[in-house]
Design goal:
Elements (H helix, E strand, L loop, with lengths): L9 H21 L4 H15 L6 H26 L5 H24 L2 H21 L12 H18 L4 H10 L4 H26 L10 E2 L2 E2 H21 L5 H20 L1
Helix pairs in contact: 1-2, 1-9, 2-3, 3-8, 3-9, 4-6, 4-8, 5-10, 7-8
Amino acid sequence: MDLFAQWSLWPDVAAYLALGAVAGVLAGLLGVGGGLVIVPALVWVYRAHGFDEALVAHLAVGTSLATIVATSLSSVRAHHRRGAVRWPLVARLAPGIVLGTWLGAVVADRLSTVWLQRVVGVFALAVAVQMLRGVKPSGHRDLPGALGMTAAGGVIGGLSGVVGIGGGSLTVPFLTWCRVDIRRAVATSAACGFPIAVAGALGFIVTGWSVPKLPPGSTGYVYWPAFAGVAAASVLSAPLGAYLAHTLPVVVLRRVFALVLGVVGLKLLL
């Protein structure tokens, strides 16, 4: 079957491309993972398409993680060129991240759409509060040993797998708290987003493999038409966001986006 057979209407294509463009610009401009935008938007788009209500949140999270596979590669390449990624830290966090993200996908599969929406909503509100306060974690301790890094990766991966994000809002504070320079923390977090996305997307494909009433064009909980549009537009628009970050009042924009994210979180909860 042609995976893109459902793209019979241009408005569908336009919706996914617009969503990807917005997510990419915000990621480049504000350093906010695209999943915080993609998941709520896809929930509403899928509902408008008439997808089964019991599946919309799972399809949104699974598809969001799949798009992050593509966008994280673009981001990691840019950071690596500047020599900012601390690859040894990525290697130490990766085992816990992969295991945690996989378990997060399993947990999400067991949640109803209502409860999965609520978890995403609470997380969105927490990020909105952090952005409004503008609190930047300072270094308080050195990096933990192998067991501690694996445990930290597990927590980061687990939460990211449930809510469909690349983990930047968790990894960056953890690394800066452990006295990693903020620029290197951001770059290393971007690299950690790739194993989160791969493990999460595979987890949602497997857990949703035999679920009935999935829309045509899906593999498990990943809806490929949405993936293609969102991923393509976000990869192309992220550099624009990075450029605008140097020309626009980012502090004001972060506060505005935090307020929008707060409204989105409340809507998901209610």
